[in-house]
Amino acid sequence: MKIALTGTPGTGKSTVAPLVDAGFGIVDLNEVIKEGYNLGADPERGSLIADLDRLDGYVESLEGDYIIEGHVAHLLPVDKIVVLRTAPAVLRQRLERRGWSQAKITENLEAEALDVILVEALEASGGRGRPGEVYEIDATGMPAEQVAEAVRQIIRGTDNYKPGGVDFSEELFL
Hints:
Blueprint: E1 2-7, H1 13-20, E2 25-28, H2 29-34, E3 38-42, E4 47-50, H3 52-61, E5 66-69, E6 80-85, H4 88-97, H5 102-113, H6 116-127, E7 133-138, H7 144-156, H8 169-173
Parallel strand pairs: 1-5, 1-6, 2-5, 6-7
Antiparallel strand pairs: 3-4
Helix pairs in contact: 1-7, 4-5
């Protein structure tokens, strides 16, 4: 089984992934992208552009159970997609601590408030002929171990955490 652990940067993916400890290997997509699975740098954003076609092949070649962790993981061939969400006020603090530019912070806060990754995940799970189930966890204020337990519940099969229960639009836009 392959699980995408995705979300806007700063939602807790890298912190939570190693805590899940359900016998799954962990793929850090940022590292894989840095190791050559990219199309070069985006000069406006100061980041690498993921080569999704090559990453598809990489993920498909993995044998066994893996958590694919990264903010583009939901666009890859996986069985389940877990989208971590975090309130924009908390997300802002995390991204500021990383020293990100105000423009990059604003772009990511807007993406979080508008459910961009969740919408992409829902589209990817059905739109690319993949049966992936999509789940959404509001990680705001949850300790990382509690978020990891929620991911373990999803791996085991739960009806909890279905998408559509998180709405941060008013926090950012009103």
